[in-house]
Every structure is written in structure tokens, then in C-alpha cells.
Write a structure and sequence with these properties.
Elements (H helix, E strand, L loop, with lengths): L1 H28 L4 H11 L4 H40 L5 H32 L3 H4 L28
Length: 160
């Protein structure tokens, strides 16, 4: 019984542990990844570390903004497709769909203006937005999530 336990449970666990230690040692020897590469480049190319870090942060911010924009475009496309299906099913007319899209664009523009005003106010008064919006980080989803504006998600009925 003990030999079977050793052969089927303990032996593979020990082998897995040894493999993890070996991989961890190799990663540590190479500096652990991304940070090491940027440090090596800074040294080899004789660059200013502060400028490189600023450039990396700028690139990350640009990528994040592009990803968010793409996500919003996809959501808008799905929303418009959902409305088109409602038109095809006779639940809405094309004119109603266009009215809805115009009103939604108006609401989003108002939201963006309010968001900018809140961010400015927060910065000017040195008050974190989390205190204004109930503990949430920044304006994450502030205003355009179910429960505040009560916009239903695709295919979901509104509570109103």
C-alpha cells in the first residue's frame, strides 16, 4: 500500500517540485523577465533610465487607450445590431432606432463632460474620486453600468 502511494502520489509531487525549483532558478538567473530586458537595454545603449521608464509608461497608456476604444467600438456595434434585430422583429421602427441612437449619443456626451468635470474637481481639491463614487476605483464604469443609468445589457429587459 505504501509503495503504491509513493509511486503514484509522492514521486510525481517530488518531481514536479524539483522542476518548479529548477525553472524558478533559471528565471532568477536571467533577471526575472521584462524588468531585466529593459535594464539590460538601458545599460547596453547607455540610455537615461528615467526617459526609458517614461517611454514605457507612455506606450502602456497608449495601448490601454487603444484597447478601451476597441472595446467601446465593439460594444456600440453589438448595441446597434441588437437594435437592428428589434427593428427586424417589428419591436421598433427604423425611425425609433435612430432616435434611440441619437439620445444614447447625447447621454454619453453628457456623461463624458460630467466625468471630465469630476476629474478636474477631484484634482483641484486633492480628493480621490473613490470617495465621491462610493469606494470604487476612480470612475470605473461610473454612470454607464446597470444600476446607475439602468441601461440594459444586450438582450436583457429593463426593470423600468
Amino acid at each position: 500500500m505504501h509503495k503504491k502511494l509513493f509511486a503514484f502520489v509522492l514521486l510525481p509531487a517530488v518531481a514536479l517540485g524539483a522542476t518548479a525549483i529548477t525553472i524558478g532558478t533559471q528565471v532568477s538567473a536571467h533577471g526575472g523577465g521584462k524588468t531585466s530586458i529593459s535594464s539590460e537595454l538601458i545599460g547596453k545603449l547607455n540610455l537615461d533610465e528615467a526617459k526609458v521608464e517614461a517611454a514605457i509608461q507612455e506606450i502602456r497608456a497608449e495601448r490601454k487607450a487603444e484597447k478601451q476604444e476597441h472595446k467601446q467600438e465593439k460594444a456600440q456595434t453589438r448595441y446597434e445590431e441588437w437594435l437592428s434585430e428589434a427593428v427586424e422583429d417589428g419591436e421598433l421602427t427604423e425611425a425609433q432606432k435612430q432616435l434611440i441612437l441619437a439620445k444614447r449619443a447625447e447621454l454619453i456626451a453628457k456623461f463624458e463632460a460630467e466625468k471630465t468635470a469630476l476629474e478636474t474637481w477631484s484634482s483641484q481639491n486633492d480628493i480621490g474620486l473613490k470617495y465621491l463614487v462610493g469606494g470604487h476605483k476612480g470612475l470605473h464604469g461610473f454612470g454607464l453600468h446597470k444600476g446607475f443609468w439602468k441601461f440594459p445589457t444586450l438582450g436583457e429587459e429593463s426593470d423600468d
